[in-house]
Amino acid sequence: MAAPKIIAQIVITGASIFGKAFVDAYKVAAANAARQRASSGEVGADAGVDGNPISPSDALNKKLGITLDEAALILNVKKEPIPTQQEILDRYQTLKVFRAKERLEGELKVALGEQEATGAQNAAASQQPPSQQQQQPPKP
C-alpha cells in the first residue's frame, strides 16, 4: 500500500517542478519577444517606458550596449565635438602600434636576459680554477 502513495507523491512533485519550469520559460520567452519587437522597429519600439519617444542617442545606447561616455573613455577621445571616423581609426591604430612596440621590446628584453644569463654562466665556468688533479702521495 505504500508503493502507490510514493508513486503519487513522485508524480505530483514532478508535475509541480515541470509547471514551475514552464512558467519561468514562458516569462523569459515573453521578455525576449518584447526585446525583439523593440529592436526590430515594430509598433511601440520608439516609445519609452513612460510612452515618450526614445531619443536616437538612447536607441543607440540600447542597441550597442555602450554609452557615448564609455566609448569616448575607451578610445581616450573627447566626446564633444564627436570625432570623425578617421580620427577614431587613427587613434586606434596608434594604440595598436604602441602596444605592438611594447610587446616586441618586452620579448627583446627577455631574449637579452636569457643571453646574459647564459653568458654569465659561461663566464663563471671559465673563471673557476682548473680542477686540481689528484695528488699522489710520494713513494718512499
UniProtKB/TrEMBL annotation:
Residues covered by region (Disordered): 115-140
Signal peptide feature range = none
Q: Which InterPro entries match?
A: Tim16
Give the main localization category: mitochondrion
Classify the source by domain of life: Eukaryota
Q: Which UniProt keywords apply?
A: Membrane, Mitochondrion, Mitochondrion inner membrane
Q: Which portions of the chain have biased composition (kind: Low complexity)?
A: 120-140
Kindly indicate whether the keyword Membrane belongs to this entry. yes
One GO biological process this protein is involved in is:
protein import into mitochondrial matrix
Q: Name one GO cellular component term.
A: TIM23 mitochondrial import inner membrane translocase complex
Say yes or no: keyword Mitochondrion present: yes
Query: Where found in the cell?
Result: Mitochondrion inner membrane
User: PANTHER family under this entry?
Assistant: MITOCHONDRIA ASSOCIATED GRANULOCYTE MACROPHAGE CSF SIGNALING MOLECULE, MITOCHONDRIAL IMPORT INNER MEMBRANE TRANSLOCASE SUBUNIT TIM16
Q: What is this protein called?
A: Presequence translocated-associated motor subunit PAM16
Originating species: Catenaria anguillulae PL171
